[in-house]
Amino acid sequence: MEPTPTAQYVPGDWLPIVIQFAAALGFVVFAMVVTHLIGPKRQSKVKNASWECGIESKGDARTPISIKYFLIAILFVLFDVEIIFLYPWAVNFRAMGLDGFIWMLLFMALLLIGFYYVIRKGVLKWE
């Protein structure tokens, strides 16, 4: 019986990937330079004015905003990203077996502990 050969990678195997990255980077740099050179350069008071949704802005943009807004936004992103980890687990549920199920129970327990902590701290209470 002959031994099975192991795969040997040489630096030349990475050449197509390096060429792809170089071409992508070159295209981005080329596009940015060309648009900067041939784009219009007209400046006016109306063009430089701040507009949002077609309504003229009034007052200072640096008004204080409650920290609760940012905490809820960060918590939404945090829990949303954690939920993304559940999809591959659900797809491979049977292949992972009991070991995968136990690890997911641990993951869900930590997720729920974090959610309980957030509720106990009163972060989600909006006044």
TrEMBL record:
One of its GO terms (cellular component) is plasma membrane. It holds the Pfam family Oxidored_q4. GO terms for molecular function: NADH dehydrogenase (quinone) (non-electrogenic) activity; NADH dehydrogenase (ubiquinone) activity; quinone binding. It catalyses: a quinone + NADH + 5 H(+)(in) = a quinol + NAD(+) + 4 H(+)(out). Keywords: Cell membrane, Membrane, NAD, Quinone, Translocase, Transmembrane, Transmembrane helix, Transport. It is found in: Cell membrane; Membrane. It is a multi-pass membrane protein. NDH-1 shuttles electrons from NADH, via FMN and iron-sulfur (Fe-S) centers, to quinones in the respiratory chain. The immediate electron acceptor for the enzyme in this species is believed to be a menaquinone. Couples the redox reaction to proton translocation (for every two electrons transferred, four hydrogen ions are translocated across the cytoplasmic membrane), and thus conserves the redox energy in a proton gradient. NDH-1 is composed of 14 different subunits. Subunits NuoA, H, J, K, L, M, N constitute the membrane sector of the complex. This is NADH-quinone oxidoreductase subunit A.
